[in-house]
Amino acid sequence: MTRLTTATALALIWASGALAQTELTMWYHGAGNQVESEIINQIISDFNASQSDWHVTIESFPQAAYNDAVVAAALAGDLPDILDVDGPIMPNWAWAGYLQPLPIDPAKIESFLPGPKGTWNDQLYSVGLWDAAVALVTRQSTLDELGLRTPTLEEPWTLEEFMGAMEAAKASGKYDYAIDLGMSDQGEWYPYAFLPFLWSFGGDLVDVQADPQTAEGVLNGDAGLKFGEWWQGMFANGYAPGPSQDPADHASGFQEGKYAFSWNGNWLALPFLEAYDDVVFLPAPDFGNGNYIGGASWQFAVSGTTEHPEGGAAFIEFALQDKYLAQFSDGIGLIPPTTTAAAMTQNYKESGPMAVFYDLSADQARLRPVTPGYPVASKVFLKAMMDIANGADVADTLDSAVDEIDADIQANNGYAQAQ
């Protein structure tokens, strides 16, 4: 009886401990991605078993429906405790009260790449377990055949060199187009991939330092006009397919030899490497004011309505272990945020086939404008880029885009004053 009583008591103690864990709900955007789901569920399981205070349960949504679900839940006062957020959208959600500052010691992420750190109003709101990077993709044999210098991070191509490469590829007669810019991907790809070209000309989407914020002078100023004329010329001169590009050509055209170059992300690097044994991933060109790529991908945050931000932060901090960062990188191909995690991966370790993307992210990544107005501004930018590519007047199109962006800013009392 003593043994039975002891065993029963131990079972009761264990059960009461489990019941004492406070439940935390979590929403995630990765439904449908089996590998991603397996990794995040393993992290949750490990976290729940590692301590007795918190128990996380997850609900996953398809990425296309996720943002709308969060907005609807916020309006209904029914947000989860933990959620993930696309990096450039984070300031809008923080401004709207969907998120609250993340109570994590900044020293915990001191070694992270800049992109995965979600900061707004000088406060940390979110942290990512990975980042993404874009490169100018080609083959070394293509560079050699066209007589082109191989650019480096230290010496990227100038505008003249880049356009010389476009003309050389076109004149060779070997390709349908000189470059695939991904024009068929008509969503967040446009601001993520093409704002860096505007930055390199010296312009921007929104001047977030102005009070109130404005697009006037940065999107439609001299630099913006030069960018717009260059952008339109890429299509008018036949260097790249326009917005009517077949999505299948964007997915596999480079591998099939239709393009000499591809402006593309590390998430498609492996198919390129499988297609050719001499693929090279080159840095963004410098069009006169620096060379840039976009930074920030999906990140974890705690909701503005959770009663347990410390519990959400405990889970997020647990997920930041290098072993999990490496698992995500190996599983879905994105860039681990630390050098120590990168060293644990197949693709990003020193001399790994995609290690160059870590360097590109560390050296060139720049955040899209950190402003609550970004969701509107980015959609306006997308439409303007499509219109200009299709032949619309550059100055008129950019002026109209500025009017739309500034009208949204004014309708929301300037955003910069919102806390």
UniProtKB/TrEMBL annotation:
SUPFAM superfamilies in the cross-refs: Periplasmic binding protein-like II
GO annotation terms (biological process): maltodextrin transmembrane transport; maltose transport
InterPro entries: SBP
Gene3D superfamilies associated with the record: Periplasmic binding protein-like II
GO cellular component entries: ATP-binding cassette (ABC) transporter complex, substrate-binding subunit-containing
GO molecular function: maltose binding
Pfam family, one: SBP_bac_8
Keywords: Signal, Transport
Full protein name: Sugar binding protein
Organism: Rubellimicrobium mesophilum DSM 19309
